[in-house]
């Protein structure tokens, strides 16, 4: 697989020359591969937001580079707009950014700015709406008539409709109830499956990340603390806890069982996986 | 114990959109909240839980039925000021409820408006900031604080009013795990040490583990009401209302179906591990 994004020795320092000088991202390097579903997790202040704002050129590195398909995104600063079409960023609480008269026009805003017109524009809008579960009859409504969860879907569709190579989602499920969270994640998984596009999912929820992504980057204090598959990352659950991250309750149960002397691998993040381990243990126990 | 908040046949509807029907958010709620309790209200989006919270100090007024705060009717306009001094609210977005440029001024806002004497305000602000663990930030600018810190300032602003009850309407929804822990730790301590009644509206199941009582709202009505152990073991009902169960209960339920003899109500991680270790260890 080819890397679509390469982050090389990226540093971003706020307030240079003031008493508040602080590096939010420090000498960070990693690759993001084409078609990958990558999770980024870290608590507030770990550098997540600063990092993702570099990936579509909203922030300029203090040092280091961001390469998109092998090319430095700042090689031609005047073409940074193209980078923003190719790397779509959905901010936290995007429903506050809706502004158009109708849902259709709101979703069409991005792709129309890309120069899409006529049938192509129509196809992009309808496809994106379908992917996030917005019905055809809702397209002519004012976005402000929709519920909070539906507004968020419209905002997401507006970025998906630009068909970016990389879609970055900053806490897409924050503030939704459990059913709403699972629904929206299912839409995002569908988009990934159908479009084979790269997705970066930023979240506080280890649970949500672990259940959805191929690979996790764990950030701590402006650096990458860990990188690996969910299973690899969860073998270091104690480190995750000490980094201020919330591991799933089932992982904490597994850790507590191990402390009680049971032969349990604590690197689990689903109830099903721990159930399996416990049942295997029971069968093994019966033989003894 | 006496009641701090009592609702009787409480109904509420949001006004109709042009040409549409009014939206009924509360369809007859009878609830009594005892003084000194720690009550968690759960429910999916649209279940009516936030609407209910907003009726507790007269932000929203009943369309039918009554809400009494220490016996005072929220429909009596002359009592609203007194009611709001007794029941304080903390909302979801920390950035929407901070009014001043300096932490201590923000916390002093309510007592100043109540006409509390200056020395008394000083004492209350210092006490309130101490209670939420933010004393060292007294002269800081609120906008430079983290989300969890801002919510603790908002809570301090409510405490400075010396209310009998604090209602937190999804006040942890926008916070990260650390911020959430800060806020939860703070309100549990206020409940324990100052005897302040806490009503916590949330959809995070795990915030309900340590509550005295859990009320589940569904379709504008109280669907369940009991201790966390009583409520969270009603797995099928919870799921049918779009809510999840804690991982611990889910795991214990699966093990029971597999024929392992474990109780269903070992809610916390430690209880759950003890129960499983006893059965299989």
Distance between the termini of chain A: 47 Å
Assigned CATH architecture of chain B: 3-Layer(aba) Sandwich
Write the CATH homologous superfamily of chain B. Answer: P-loop containing nucleotide triphosphate hydrolases
CATH fold annotation of the largest domain in chain A: Rossmann fold
Relative helix content of chain A: 40-55%
Highest CATH level, the class of chain B: Alpha Beta
Order of helices and strands of chain B: EEEHEEHEHHHEHEEEHHHH
Strand element count of chain B: 10
The CATH homologous superfamily of the largest domain in chain A corresponds to P-loop containing nucleotide triphosphate hydrolases
Main beta sheet strand tally, sense and closure of chain A: 6 strands, mixed
Shape of chain B: globular
Quaternary assembly? heterodimer
* Fraction of residues in helix of chain B: 25-40%
Mind describing the biggest β-sheet of chain B? 6 strands, mixed
Q: What's the order of the H and E elements of chain A?
A: EEEHEEHEHHHEHEHEEHHHH
| Interface with most residues | A-B, 38 and 40 residues
Beta-strand residue percentage of chain A: 15-25%
Structural class of chain A: alpha/beta
Note the total helix count of chain B.
10
Domain unit count of chain A? 3
What is the mean predicted local confidence, pLDDT of chain B? 91
Notes on the structure:
The complex is a heterodimer of chains A (288) and B (281). Chain A is of the alpha/beta class. Chain A has helices spanning 48-55, 80-86, 103-113, 118-131, 148-160, 178-195, 206-212, 230-234, 237-242, 249-259, 271-287, and strands at residues 3-14, 22-33, 37-41, 63-68, 71-72, 87-90, 166-170, 198-203, 215-220, 223-228. In chain A, helix 3 (103-113) packs across helix 4 and helix 4 (118-131) packs across helix 5 (148-160). With 281 residues, chain B is an alpha/beta fold. Chain B has a single domain (3-245), classed as 3-Layer(aba) Sandwich (Rossmann fold). Chain B is built from 10 helices and 10 strands. A 6-stranded mixed beta sheet of chain B has the order 6-7-8-3-9-10, sandwiched between helices. The longest helix of chain B has 18 residues, at 177-194. The N and C termini of chain B lie far apart (43 Å). The interface between A and B is large, with 38 and 40 residues.
